[in-house]
Amino acid sequence: MRIGLLVIAVVLSFFAARLLQLQGLDPKSYADMATAKDVVELTLPAARGDILDRNGVALAGSVNGRMIIADPLRTADRAPELATLLANELDLDYFRTLEKLRRDGSRFQYIARRVPAATAREVLDKVNKAKFKGLSTENEPIRDYPAGDVAANLVGFMGTDEPLAGFERSFNGHLSGKDGETRYTQGKGYRVPLAENSTVKPVDGQELRTTIDRDLQWYTQKVLAQAVEDYRAKSGVAVVMDTRTGELLAVADAPTFNANKPLESDEEDLGSRAFSDVFEPGSVQKVLTAAALVDAGKVTARTRIKVPPQLQRQDRPINDWFSHGVLRMTMAGVIAQSSNIGTVLAADSFGKRALHRYLSGFGLGQRTDVGVRGEARGLLPTPERMTSQNKDRIVFGQSLSVNAVQMTAAINTIANGGERVSPSLISGSATTDEGLEVGSDHATRTRVVSQKAARETMLMMERVVDDEVGVAPRAQVPGYRVAGKTGTAQRVNEECSCYDGSFSLSFGGFAPADDPRFTVYVVIHAPGVDGGGGSVGGPAFSKIMARALSHYGVPPTGGKPNSVPVEW
């Protein structure tokens, strides 16, 4: 009996110790463990803010979607059959799905995310018809891009759980809001009414209104894509800017991609070349040089310049794009005929510091900082690094580099009476995830050249599209006065840092020339045909400008093109 009592006492002491541990030392953790198997925690996704064009039309929005969830405790018995059905209907990996359906110790597994609501309903109907247990759905918005490839290079796209490109990524904090959560206890697949049940509601994201005009963006992309195809080019960009406000109405890239199916396109097509690619601007640069010279009192449109067949400078001669003898040109003629030699001779009176000061004022060598990630700064040598040799080449568009939006804003400075207005892509104000405040509310205005100098330069640019004396008559817009400039620049190969034999052909200008409303810049990179900026970029410029003027109801001014002499 003593031995029996001793054994009983020992056993009871073990029970007492265990009870002390469970109820006295750490009761909460064990209670949590007891209920954890039946507690479900769900994230309640916040509705992502829409990305809109300037008129409130959606470029990106959210539509109804569902997440499909499994309770492995209830799906394990028929997991192979259920995995087969789900893999076939939702294009899932069979073995990964099977593993989730059998996951030991789990009551909650994501099977599929962001499934269209209609598809989710069809799948659940088939699941119920086959009498499978343990599958349910919850709301989860899906990102949708109703216009497909329109402005996709700017808007970007979403991955499963994070933004991967464009505005979606740059303004993720602005758009995403804050997810909520719900926690509840379930029993046999149903919520237990009187058990734990708490919900924190999500806070929806804010909308982002851009300056883009969706209709004009669509048309600009269409014209640009056709030009790239017709000229068998590697790529192209086109930009439309409101002359007075600096707002970007269209920024097109070709090739581009469908934001709903980004993985079907090449990676190099998923960004915006208008911001990330840099190139030598070629002869479009001459109008900036001319405006600076006029503003400094060095030349006028009628200044006489004797242009030799070739100009011997430093280590190599400077030539024009066309063969000629000695020409007697005015400064207007130098621009109209795009003479490298004439531009260099005119700029001989300009020092390196003065040239750098003016080109910096036009915005070269500086990012536009409109809110697009990966924007390139371009290259503008400082006066200390600017030799006499590259100074000569800079004045006609070599030995420096720009991006397309940067150059559009520079040309627009002349259109805007010599005052540079910083470009903007966001209407109003917004802050990027890097903390940069951007938008039309933050646009700056800087006087670069006088109104008189800008007008004098406009007169020279108008002669560029003249049927008789200009190099780009195909850039004309019927019924309107047009001022513009061609550009033909050799392209640099990044691997060898040398010219690779291909060209970037461009045309930039504004209309109406005597009362500018829009500035358009078109660049065709590495075309597979012979031609210049006027014959390749000019026709696309004409179509895009004509559409912009018509779309916004801008009437012709009724003025006649000027007839400033081009020779003497």
UniProtKB/TrEMBL annotation:
- Check the record and name the InterPro entries matching this protein: Beta-lactam/transpept, Beta-lactam/transpept-like, PBP_dimer, PBP_dimer_sf, PCN-bd_Tpept
Pfam families the record matches = PBP_dimer, Transpeptidase
Q: Where in the cell is it found?
A: Membrane
* Keyword annotations: Membrane
Question: Penicillin-binding protein dimerisation domain location, by residue?
Answer: 44-163
Q: Where is the signal peptide?
A: none
Q: Which GO terms describe its cellular component?
A: plasma membrane
A molecular function (GO) term: penicillin binding
Q: Where in the numbering of this chain does the Penicillin-binding protein transpeptidase domain appear?
A: 236-545
Q: Which GO terms describe its biological process?
A: cell wall organization
Family the UniProt entry places it in? Belongs to the transpeptidase family.
Q: What is this protein called?
A: Penicillin-binding protein 2
The species is: Nocardioides jishulii
